[in-house]
Q: What sequence folds into this?
């Protein structure tokens, strides 16, 4: 039971740090455009456009 004296404030402190981090992320618009960021990771659109341009130039 003596360990609760240390664990409860420790837990409250880290919960507050997490809450502050969440509020910061929301206010700085870290969660805006979730679909766009996910698609940018999976699909490299810029490289595909470059390859298409190279193919068109080679065909000429």
A:
């Amino acid at each position: 039971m003596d360990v609760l004296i240390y664990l409860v404030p420790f837990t409250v402190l880290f919960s507050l740090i997490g809450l502050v981090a969440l509020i910061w992320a929301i206010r700085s618009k870290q969660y805006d455009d979730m679909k766009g960021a996910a698609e940018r990771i999976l699909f490299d659109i810029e490289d595909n456009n470059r390859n298409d341009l190279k193919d068109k130039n080679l065909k000429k």
In short: The mean pLDDT is 80. The longest helix spans residues 4-27.
